[in-house]
Amino acid sequence: MFEIIKSDLAGRIGILHSNHGKIETPAYVPVIHPVKQAIPPKKIQDMGFDLLITNAYITMKRHGQDATKRG
């Protein structure tokens, strides 16, 4: 669910509620390859990022329906 905190003609500030916590927006979010990671997730976390995303298509091609079940 996305909760809008404030908005105007140029954009909005909000909170994205997920099963893993809250994400304040706008947010810079690193995108990583699920297999070939140039920078380890721990190092990205040490840089100050609390969230990573990946391409679901790549994950699905590699792990199939099992990835969907595991979340």
From TrEMBL:
Pfam families: TGT (PF01702)
A Gene Ontology term for the protein's cellular component: cytoplasm
Residues in tRNA-guanine(15) transglycosylase-like domain copies: 10-69
GO biological process: tRNA wobble guanine modification
Keyword annotations of the record: tRNA processing
InterPro entries found in the cross-reference section: ArchSynthase1/Queuine_TRR (IPR050076), TGT-like_sf (IPR036511), tRNA_ribo_trans-like (IPR002616)
Gene3D superfamilies for the chain: Queuine tRNA-ribosyltransferase-like
UniProt KW Cell inner membrane keyword: no
Alphabetical list of PANTHER family matching this protein: QUEUINE TRNA-RIBOSYLTRANSFERASE (PTHR46499)
Full protein name: tRNA-guanine(15) transglycosylase-like domain-containing protein
